[in-house]
Amino acid sequence: MPGETLGLVGESGCGKSVSALSLMRLIPDPPGKTVGGEVLFDGEDILQVDMDDMRRIRGAKMAMVFQEPMTSLNPVLTLDRQLTETIQLHMGKSRDEARRDAIELLARVGISDPDQRIRQYPHQFSGGMRQRVMIAMALSCNPRLIIADEPTTALDVTIQAQILELMKSLTLDLGVALIIITHNLGVVARYADRVNVMYAGKIIERGSALEIYTNPRHPYTVGLLDSVPRLDQRLTDASGAAAKLVPIEGQPPDLVNLPEGCSFRARCRFAVDKCATEAPPLMPVLTTGEEPHVSACWEADKLGVQALSYAGGRSSQL
């Protein structure tokens, strides 16, 4: 929804970035191919539009902040050309008008002296500044949706916070929908309104951020939350020994040769016989709030009590 932030989380290799590229129809073909499904945007399945129409949608209606700005910005062009080209192409403005808009965008994302710095090249900016330029480029044509693919991965924690606060405030001010793709659960907890948890190429749990964190209903979500160190957890256990994190045992499955039944079964301590033969669909689960909450787990409703015990009382901690 306008102004809403959706978090897409999961471990490396689960399909988060491929999903984002699929939404933008940026999967290279070959070797990649979209073989099914639909992407509904403004009531239209954009998988069915021709590439000329798709180029008009990209940038103007949907924009993307890529994971590594140094490889996304052209090193031999100044910011002036890289920012104004998009504005001229999609907004139909003159070069001078586009340049004025580009300078305003750089100022909006916190780059000082923008009328001078717009003449510089990407290598003359720090990593945080380059990411701000990418955000300015994404905002340049007033899109309705921005997809941010791990936008703070290469930045230190102080700059990460600045970039995320900037993106959140801009989306709220401008009414832009934002998808944040990340494996950082702290980022999701602070900035996301709703969360999709992904495993082995599929969404396995979806709900509001508060619901996902306080009432997880998939074993993988429970495992993700328990594998993250917390400032409010005890440093020692009951015997006085140093407390340990609870890892998710095992390895992710081969996405080319997925096992029968639930893809998470081999790593799940809550698995039952049915998990070996039938892949669970996303089903509504008991919720503590008004937002819909779905989970792809046969034991989702029973997991509520088990997960709280296994998690060491996470809900009371939150």
From TrEMBL:
Keywords, alphabetical: ATP-binding, Cell membrane, Membrane, Nucleotide-binding, Transport
Compartments reported by the entry: Cell membrane
Main location: membrane
InterPro entries: AAA+_ATPase (IPR003593), ABC_Ni/Peptide_Import (IPR050388), ABC_transporter-like_ATP-bd (IPR003439), ABC_transporter-like_CS (IPR017871), Oligopep_ABC_C (IPR013563), P-loop_NTPase (IPR027417)
Membrane topology: Peripheral membrane protein
ABC transporter domain mapped to chain residues: 1-225
Pfam families tied to this protein: ABC_tran, oligo_HPY
Keyword Membrane attributed: yes
GO CC field: plasma membrane
Keyword Membrane applies: yes
Molecular function GO labels: ATP binding; ATP hydrolysis activity
Family annotation (SMART domains): AAA
BP GO terms, sorted: peptide transport
PANTHER family found in the cross-reference section: DIPEPTIDE TRANSPORT ATP-BINDING PROTEIN DPPD, OLIGOPEPTIDE TRANSPORT ATP-BINDING PROTEIN APPD
Name this protein carries in UniProt: Peptide import ATP-binding protein BRA0405/BS1330_II0402
Species annotation: Geodia barretti
UniProt lineage: Eukaryota, Metazoa, Porifera, Demospongiae, Heteroscleromorpha
